[in-house]
C-alpha cells in the first residue's frame, strides 16, 4: 500500500513538474513572439491583399441571343410583361429587365424569349416567334429583332458597366467585394497587424520540415491562440495547419497530439478560469448549455495565417474548425484555396470562410529562400502544405 501511494505521489509530482516546464516554455515563446511584434511595429512593409473569390467574379461578360419585340402602346406594356412571363419566365435570367426604352418617344423594346440553338439569325415575324403561345399581341409591332443580352448577373461593378451596354440589368453592389477587389478592405491598422502575424508565420515556418508555418489569432483582441510549424517527418499528417488546430484544441482543454517543439505555442488553458466563467454564464442563462456557450467551436471567429497555401486536408480541417478567415503568401501546386481548387467556396459545405493571398514587399525573396531550403536533399519541393 505504501509503495502504491508513493508511486501515485511520484506520478503527480512528475506531472506537476512537466506542466510547470510546459508553462515556462509557453511563456518563453510568448515573450519571443511579443518581442518580434514590437520590432515589426517600427518597420513599414507594403502589402497587397488579394481576395480568393469564385471564378464568376473575374469572368468576362458572356451573352446569349434573345428575341426582342417593340411595344408602341405604352398602356399595354404591363399586360404584355405578365403574358410573356407566363410563357417564358426569366427565372434563370432574373438579372435582365424585361423592357427598355428607345430613342423613339413612344416605343419601347421588350424581351420575348431566348433564341433556340436550331434558330438562325434570319428574319422572324412576331407570329413565328410566339408560335402557339396564346399572347394578346395588342400593342406589339410585327417586327422582331435578335439581340445579344448578358447571360449571367453582374457580380462586380466592372461587369455591370459592360453588361448594361448590351441590355438593362439589375445590379446590387456588394461593397465588401468591391473593396476587396480594390485592395481597400483593410484599414492601415488592420494591414499592420496582418503583416505582423504573417511575418511571424513565415519566421516560425523556417523550423518546420517543409518550412511551413501557421499562426491562429483572435482578430478581436489580436491575441495569439496557437503558433505551429510543419512536423510531417514525425507524423505524415502533422502539417502546420493541422498542428495549429490541435494546439487550439489544447488551449480549450483538449488536443490529440503531444506537440513538443520549442518553437510552437498555444494559449494557456485554465480549468479554474473556465469553470468560473461557466458558472457565471449559467446564472445569466438558466436552462442553457453554459459550457457550449463559453467554448467556441475550435476556431470560431479566429483568423489563420499560413505561409503556404493549404492543401485539401488542411483546408477541410479549417472548414470543420469554423475558421473565420485565412491569409497565405505562397501559392502551392497542390493548394486547395486558389490553385488546384477553391474549397472554401464549394457548395454543400456547412461552413465557408474568406481567403486572402498576401503579396509582401519581400515575398519573392522569401519564396526563393523557401524553395532553396525545401529542395535541399528532398525530391519533392512542392509538396502540399
UniProtKB/TrEMBL annotation:
<comment type="similarity">
    <text>Belongs to the cytidine and deoxycytidylate deaminase family. ADAT3 subfamily.</text>
</comment>
<dbReference type="GO" id="GO:0008033">
    <property type="term" value="P:tRNA processing"/>
</dbReference>
<protein>
    <submittedName>
        <fullName>Probable inactive tRNA-specific adenosine deaminase-like protein 3</fullName>
    </submittedName>
</protein>
<dbReference type="GO" id="GO:0005737">
    <property type="term" value="C:cytoplasm"/>
</dbReference>
<dbReference type="InterPro" id="IPR016193">
    <property type="entry name" value="Cytidine_deaminase-like"/>
</dbReference>
<dbReference type="Pfam" id="PF00383">
    <property type="entry name" value="dCMP_cyt_deam_1"/>
</dbReference>
<dbReference type="GO" id="GO:0005634">
    <property type="term" value="C:nucleus"/>
</dbReference>
<dbReference type="GO" id="GO:0052717">
    <property type="term" value="F:tRNA-specific adenosine-34 deaminase activity"/>
</dbReference>
<keyword id="KW-0819">tRNA processing</keyword>
<feature type="domain" description="CMP/dCMP-type deaminase">
    <location>
        <begin position="192"/>
        <end position="356"/>
    </location>
</feature>
<dbReference type="InterPro" id="IPR002125">
    <property type="entry name" value="CMP_dCMP_dom"/>
</dbReference>
